[in-house]
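Tokens for chain A. Residues wanted.
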């Protein structure tokens, strides 16, 4: 209690956590600091201010090369905002800052780290409207989704790991005669973190919260398509009073910034979320450099199975959410729907009616369920998959076309394919858009076989009222997250991650703490003689 009361005071905070001397040899020019000021952006009538610099050693600074890049507005396809573009030399500086701060941060009182994480959560609550506006403008998400899912998920994650900070203990053992031994859970060090564009705010927090709680420092790269919310959160990190260098953000591209982080000889751990192809590249980069510990959260092609005894209306609702959440741009989206032949026609009819009712439109328009896809590249990729489905002989049962608007933007009709065969591209590859396949099945064993016929293993769902079947089938599905009578529900307190080529390691829950700590064993001699 006393400690907490003292933490509230800035004066005493300094006493508890002495100011870290600045990184030796690291000095930003006044020009680099001045050109990285915040700029205003008007979003749906709301004026927000967003930093434009890289966030290194507690300051917003211009990139060493002075470059900037644009993020576009997916609702129009036009440039939205311009931010500093980092490169390898900026990563070098950020890693130096993170390494320097790590030496002090690792030994701080965990209560202090928890207080800072909670302070950041408070500031995110206070700035909720700005964060939602920024996230929706940059990604195309609807404010409804962002305010009920992305933002509360981020704040909940911060508070959850704040709670863990002072509960991470080792073991002691007196059981071995002649010794006393114990283990310590030490932070890993400087953590490189690379995140995708589909949940920029949530992924940023999923990454930094457990790393900081356990005493690590961070060099993080946002996705080039969606750099804005991370910059805003860094402003709040600064305001919360985190020591300079605890979190460093280098916005920029994968080939430059991402690759520099993955290959860096002084980055101890790499946490990556993104596609399986890039996941392989960063794992290889670790192998070719310093064997930094790598965790990977990758793609998916998740099955969603509806048995004949399921509550049909509810199964339709959850299966619709299984693809509608984030307009299909969700790693655990339920893209392969399998329906038992006895209810296939009825399910297809009800599901089609449900999908037809989805309102597609601009993110800030009233009542919109589905906004634009995130980028031109993603839009073209999804339309390419729809074409592949048609070319390979599947039937477009609903949708299948882009939606033209007078403002431009990347809108695609909710799309249902039927008559899909297991070898088809749309059945095997991650589409990452509002596209599902619906396939009829006869019996449990065959549907399990089809469901598992994928290189991915991120998620899977079963709809049935028979609990024995629910337990048996979820047990047989090779996926890291399984649902019964629901879909797309992920909570920060439950481990999340992939089987097979969907990833390595887990995020969320207690499980992720394993990734951000390493165990040190200490043996004390209590009278043992040296062997002769
Ligand atoms: P991506 O792999 O193209 O990019 C992810 C990140 O990696 C970006 O920041 C990118 O700049 C960076 N990057 C690209 N090339 C790199 C390289 N050579 N070295 C280092 N970094 C590099 O993925 P994306 O298109 O941004 O995101 C969509 C993918 O992410 C989908 O496959 C989706 O399933 C997956 N995803 C997975 C999870 C999960 O938790 N499993 C969550 C969200 C998204
Ligand atoms: Mn954008």
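Reply:
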């Amino acid at each position: 209690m006393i400690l907490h009361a003292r933490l509230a005071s800035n004066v005493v905070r300094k006493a508890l956590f002495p100011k870290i001397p600045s990184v030796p040899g690291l000095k930003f020019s006044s020009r680099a600091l001045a050109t990285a000021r915040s700029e205003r952006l008007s979003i749906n009538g709301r004026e927000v201010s967003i930093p434009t610099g890289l966030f290194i050693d507690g300051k917003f600074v211009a990139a060493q090369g002075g470059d900037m890049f644009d993020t576009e507005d997916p609702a129009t396809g036009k440039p939205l905002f311009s931010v500093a573009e980092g490169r390898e030399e900026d990563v070098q500086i950020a890693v130096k800052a993170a390494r320097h701060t790590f030496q002090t941060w690792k030994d701080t009182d965990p209560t202090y780290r928890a207080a800072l994480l909670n302070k950041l959560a408070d500031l995110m609550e206070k700035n909720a409207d700005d964060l939602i506006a920024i996230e929706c403008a940059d990604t195309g998400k609807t404010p409804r989704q962002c305010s009920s899912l992305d933002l509360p998920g981020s704040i909940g994650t911060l508070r959850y790991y704040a709670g863990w900070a002072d509960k991470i203990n080792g073991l002691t053992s007196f059981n071995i005669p002649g010794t006393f031994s114990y283990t310590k859970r030490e932070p890993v060090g400087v953590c490189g973190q690379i995140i995708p564009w589909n949940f920029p705010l949530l992924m940023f927090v999923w990454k930094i919260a457990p790393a900081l709680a356990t005493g690590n420092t961070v060099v993080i790269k946002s996705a080039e398509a969606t750099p804005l919310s991370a910059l805003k959160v860094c402003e709040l990190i600064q305001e919360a009073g985190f020591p300079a260098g605890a979190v460093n953000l280098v916005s920029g591209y994968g080939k430059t910034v991402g690759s520099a982080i993955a290959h860096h000889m002084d980055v101890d751990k790499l946490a990556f979320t993104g596609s399986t192809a890039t996941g392989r590249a960063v794992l290889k980069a670790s192998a070719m450099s310093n064997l930094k510990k790598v965790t990977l959260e990758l793609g998916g092609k998740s099955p969603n199975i509806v048995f004949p005894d399921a509550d049909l209306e509810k199964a339709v609702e959850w299966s619709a959410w299984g693809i509608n959440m984030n307009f299909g741009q969700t790693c655990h989206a339920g893209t392969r729907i399998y329906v038992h032949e006895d209810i296939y026609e009825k399910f297809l009819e009800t599901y089609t009616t449900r999908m037809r009712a989805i309102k597609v439109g601009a993110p800030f328009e009233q009542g919109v369920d589905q906004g634009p896809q995130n980028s031109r590249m993603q839009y073209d990729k999804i339309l390419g998959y729809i074409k592949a489905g048609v070319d390979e002989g599947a039937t477009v049962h609903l949708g299948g076309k882009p939606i033209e608007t007078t403002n431009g933007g990347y809108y695609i009709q909710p799309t249902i394919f039927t008559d899909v065969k297991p070898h088809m591209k749309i059945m095997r590859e991650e589409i990452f858009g509002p596209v599902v396949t619906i396939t009829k099945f006869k019996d449990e064993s065959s549907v399990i076989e089809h469901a598992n016929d994928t290189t991915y293993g991120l998620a899977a769902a079963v709809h049935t009222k028979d609990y024995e079947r629910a337990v048996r089938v979820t047990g047989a599905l090779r996926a890291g997250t399984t649902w019964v009578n629901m879909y797309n529900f992920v909570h920060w307190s439950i481990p999340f991650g992939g089987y097979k080529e969907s990833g390595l390691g887990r995020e969320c829950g207690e499980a992720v703490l394993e990734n951000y700590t390493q165990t040190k064993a200490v043996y004390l001699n209590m009278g043992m003689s040296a062997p002769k």
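The chain is about 40% helix and 20% strand. The chain has a mean pLDDT of 95.
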